[in-house]
Amino acid sequence: MDSTDYTEGIDFQKYWLVLKRHWLPASSVFALIVTLATYKAATADPVYEAQGKLLFKKQNTTSALVTDAGAKIGQLDTLTQFNNPLDTEAEVISSMPIVKETVEALNFRDDQGKFIPPGDFLSQLNVKKIEGTDVLMIAFKSQYPKEAADAVNKLMDVYINNNILVNRREATAAREFIMQQLPDTEETVRQAEAALRAFKEENSVVSLQDEATSAVISISNLDSEVIKAQAQYEDATARSQALQSQMGLNPQQALAINTLSQSAAIQQVLTEYQKVQDQLAVQRTRYQSQHPIITNLERREAALSDLLQERVAQVLGNNQAVDRRDLQIGELQQQLTADLVNAEVQRLGLGSNVSALVRAQGSYRDRANALPRLEQQQRDLQRQLDAAQSAYQILLRNLQEVRIAENQNVGNARVISYATLPVNPVAPNKKLLVAAGVVGGSMLYVLTAFLLELMDPSIKTAKELRMLFRYTLLGMIPATKKRFGFLGFSSRREIPLLPTRDQPTTYTSEAYRTLQANLKFISPDREIRIIVVTSAVSQEGKSTVAANLAVATAQLGRRVLLIDGDMRHSTQHQIWNLTNVAGLSDVIANQAKFNIAVREVMENLDVLPSGATPPNPLALIDSKRMASLLEEFRDNYEFIIIDTPPFLLVADALALGKMTDGLLLVTRPGIIDTASAGGAREILAQSGQNVLGLVVNGVSAGSEPDGAFQRVKAYHKGKYKDAAIKKVTVPSESSSDPSFPDWDR
What is the b/e burial string over 554-568, where b = at least 16 CB atoms within 10 angstroms of the residue's CB? Predict the structure, then answer.
C-alpha cells in the first residue's frame, strides 16, 4: 500500500473537515462546558480531608491461651486466590450498619433535623488499601475540618467494636455447633468400634499380618507333604496291583479269603465237611446211591454245606458266594493274601492321607486368598474408626479452645493512626477543573460535530460529488455565504451577483471563465452551440452559473443568448434587473414577438425572460414551436444558454436536453444529498441525456480535501487582495440562490 492509499484509508483530512464544517455549534458546546467548569472552580467551597489508618492481622495472637480453633475466629481468609481480605474489610467498613451507627453517634443531621442518609455519608467517605501492606486508609471529606476528623475516628472505633462483637459471636456459634455435633460424633465412634469387633469375630481375625505369614509357611510345608504322600500312595498302589495280578484276586476277594481262612468256626465246619465227603466217597464204592448209609452221608454233607455257607455269610457280613477251595489255602498263598490285604490297607490309608493333605492345602490357600479382602475390609473399618476418633478428639479440643476464645475481647484490626484536624483543603483543584472542562469540551466538540454530520444527509464536498456522478468536471465555482439577521433569521435575501461582469478580476470570475473554456473544448468533433443548464434539486445556483457563464462567453466577443426556461420560478429577470412582462412563454404561444421580448443586457449578450407563467409549462417546452425557435436562435446567435428548473422536480430540462447539444449539470455541496444524487444520475442515464459535464457550485476551499482549489484561491487573493467588492441587494421572494460571494474573506 502506497502513501496515497494509506491516507485515503485513514482519511484524517476528512475528519478535520467535519470538525471545521460544524465549528459554530460545536464551539458553542465547547464554550458552554469550559464556562461551566470555570464557574464551578470559582464558586466551589473548600473541602478538607481527614485520614486515619487501620492495621489488620491475619489471625488473633494477642492471647497465648487461644490455640488453633480460637485463632481462626476472625481470621482474614479469602474464598479465592484472586480476592484480597482487605478489600472485604473495606466493604464492611463502608456497610450500611457501620455507617448508620457512626452517623447516629456523631449526631450528623440535615437542615430538617433528621439524620443524614447513609448514602450522603458514603459519598464523602473513601476507604482504600495501601499497596504492599496490611493497612487500610480511611479518609473523609467535609467542608469542616473537625467534622472530617471526628467522622474518621468514630467510624474506626465503631468498626473495631463491631469486629470484636462479630468475633465473639463467631466463637459462640462455633461452641454451640461443636456441642451439637459431639453426641453424634461419639455415637459414630461407638458404631465404628462395634463394626470392627464384629468383623474380627465373624472372620476369626486376630492378626491378619501374622496369619498371612503363617499361611505362606503352612502352604509351603503342605506342598512338600502332599508330594511325599502322593509318592508313597503311588508305591502302595503299585505293590497292590502286582499282588492282585499274581494271585488273580482283587483286594476285596483277598480280604475275604484271608478272613475265612483264619476263622476257626469255618475251618472246623470245613474239616467236618471234608471228612463227610471222604466217607461218602468211600461208601459209594461199597453201596448203591439208595443205600441208607449213602443217603445219611449225603444228608449230613448237605447240612454241613449249609452250615458252612451260613458261617461264611456271618463272617463276611453278606451272602457273597465263595469257592470252597478258597476257604482253606496254603501257607504261601495265605501269606500272599495277607500281603495283598496289607498293601491295600496301606494304599487306602495313604490315599486318605493325601486327600486330607490336599483339603488342608486348599483350606490354607482359600484363607490366604481371602486375606487381602479381609485386610481391605479391616483397613476400611479401622480408617472409619480412626476418622471418627480423630473428629471426636478435635471436637473436644476445639470446644475447650472456643470456650476460651469466647471470653476474650479480641479483634483482627487496630488503629495505628487516628485522624487529625486537616489544615489545607484538598478541593477544589481549580486548575484541574478548568483543564477537565477543556478536555470535556473538546470531546463534546468532536461529538457534536460528528453527530451533526450524521444528521445531515447532504453531500459535503466536491470530491464526493465527482465520485458519485462520475461526469467530466468542467468547473468549480467558489462558495458564497449567507447573511443572517437577528437570532440567525434573515430578514432579506441577497440576490446572486454577476462577478464576471462586476468583479472581473476576482478568482470567482476566473472560475466562470475556466468553465467557459472547458465547455468550449469539451467536444473536438462538433461545436457546442446550445446547452441546457440544470440541477437535480433547487437551491444549487444553476441560474447564477447560467448568467455568469453567459457573461464570460459574451466577454470573449461571441454573440450569446441567455434564455430563462424556468417558467415556474423565474430568476434571470431578477438577476439582470429586468421586467418579466413578455418572455419565452409568450414567444412560444405567439403572443409576443421575439425581438420585443428579448433584452440586451450588455454587449454581445441578450436575455430572454421566462414570461408569464403558463398552466402547463412542459407542454410549451416540449412543443414543435420550441424546437423551431431553437433552430432560429442557432442561426442568429453563436451560443445559447437555457436556464431550466431542477429535473428531479419537473421534466422541462429533460425535454429541452433532447433538443439541444447537451446538458450542463450544476451541483452544490451541502444542498444535494446522496439519495437525490443517485436518483438524478439514474434518470439522466435512463433518459439518454448527453451530459456535457459537471459544474460544482458553492465550493468552499476550506472544506475541500483537494489542495489545488485552495492554491488557486490563495493565488488570486494574493494578486487581487485590494479588489473592490460590490454587493447588489434586491428584495425577492423566489430567488434560488440567496447568497453573496465571499472571495475577499
Answer: bbeebebbbbbbbbe
Identify whether the C-beta of residue 498 lies closer than 8 Å to the C-beta of residue 605.
no
The amino acid at residue 335 is Q
Is the bond preceding 251 in cis, omega lying within 30 degrees of 0?
A: no
- pLDDT at residue 727 above 70? no
DSSP 46: P
Same domain, 548 and 683: yes
For 42, residues 6+ apart whose C-beta sits below 8 A from its C-beta are 430
pLDDT at 722 over 60: no
Measure the CA angle with vertex 448, ends 445 and 452; round to 5°: 140
Residue 458: count of CB within 10 angstroms of its CB: 15
Is residue 448 within 8 A of residue 25, CB to CB? The reply is yes
**Euclidean distance between CA atoms 280 and 292, whole angstroms:** 12
All cell numbers assigned to 151 = 467522622
Of 697, 733, 742, 670, the closest CA to residue 534 belongs to: 697
Q: Any alpha helices (H) in 62-95, and if so which ranges?
A: 68-71, 85-93
Domain count, the chain: 2
Beta bridge partners of 531: 641, 662
DSSP 371-433: HHHHHHHHHHHHHHHHHHHHHHHHHHHHHHHHHHHHT----SEEEEE------S--B--HHHH
339 and 463 share a domain? no
pLDDT at 602 over 90: yes
CB 139 within 8 A of CB 49: yes
Residue with the larger pLDDT of the pair 372 and 453: 372
Please choose, from the candidates 601, 575, 574, 572, the residue with its C-alpha nearest in 3D space to the C-alpha of residue 584. Answer: 572
Local structure of 207: helix, strand or coil: coil
Same domain, 532 and 644: yes
| DSSP, residue by residue, 650-706 | -SHHHHHHTTSSEEEEEE-TTTSBHHHHHHHHHHHHHTT--EEEEEEEEE-GGG-S-
The secondary structure of 277-291, three-state, reads HHHHHHHHCCCCCCC
Query: In this structure, is residue 539 part of a structural domain?
Result: yes
Is 350 a member of any domain?
A: yes
The reply to whether 338 and 467 lie within a common domain is no
Contact 677, 465 (CB under 8 A): yes
Crossing angle (nearest 10°) for helices 208-247 and 331-406: 170
Are residues 364 and 503 located together in one domain of the fold?
A: no
Quote the CA–CA distance of 473 and 681 in Å, as a whole number.
15
Same domain? For 368 and 467 the reply is no
Q: In terms of domains, do 623 and 714 share one? A: yes
Percent of the chain with pLDDT over 90: 19
Alpha carbons 643 and 543: distance in angstroms, whole number: 6
Query: What are the Cα distances from residue 255, in Å, to 37, 239, 251?
Result: 135, 16, 6
Domain range for 626 is 458-481+496-721
Domain match, 352 and 471 both? no
pLDDT digits (tens, 9 = 90+) for 160-205: 888 888 877 777 888 888 888 888 888 888 888 888 788 777 777 7
Range in 80-89, 217-226, 259-268, 588-597 with the lowest mean pLDDT: 259-268
